[in-house]
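Before going further, learn to read the protein records used in this course. A complete example follows; check for yourself that the lines match position by position.
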Amino acid sequence: MCYITQAMVIAIGGKAIAAYAGGIAIAANVALAAGYAYTGYSTYQGRVEAGKAEERRRKYQAEVAANNAKVAEYNAQDALERGSKLEKQHRLKMSKLQGKQRSVLAAQGIELESGSALDLLDDTAYYGELDALTIRNNAKRDAWKYKVNAQNQAAQSGLLQMQGRDARDAANMNATSGALASTTSTLVTMGSSYTTNFGIVNTVT
């Protein structure tokens, strides 16, 4: 006949406690892993989205700069056209002035090809031409400033687009590195917890 001794009861109880403790340890490790996984994923997703947001911001700025470049190009062309128009208007004005001067001088019987009358007509022609060239040069200078601005804006647009892509790639790399580090840390923590908990359990026989 087999009798259950006190030692057997103690042994059976110890194994039951060990199994129960093991179950609790496993459940704790699973919960720990789930928590780390959720945190790691949230961090990863947050970094990726931050990179995308920065790329969108840079892209918008690049589009603004590109549009400014187009406006500057338009202004450069407009400056040249306006300058050409003003120059023509000024030349026409001076031509009419010279004609009026000739008429007035001729009506007074003054010789136009010599003396003070000729000097007056020559001065009118000289300063009229000087003003016309000044108008042309001013228009060219304004157009040049606009063109330089257009080139700068275009370069800025290209730079911003590149920075946007770099920001996105850097964020993705950072997110991936962070996820790997988090996973490694989780595995190490779980391994340590498993060893500690099951090391205690396995000593109970």
Summary: Helices lie at 6-107, 115-202. The chain is about 95% helix and 0% strand.
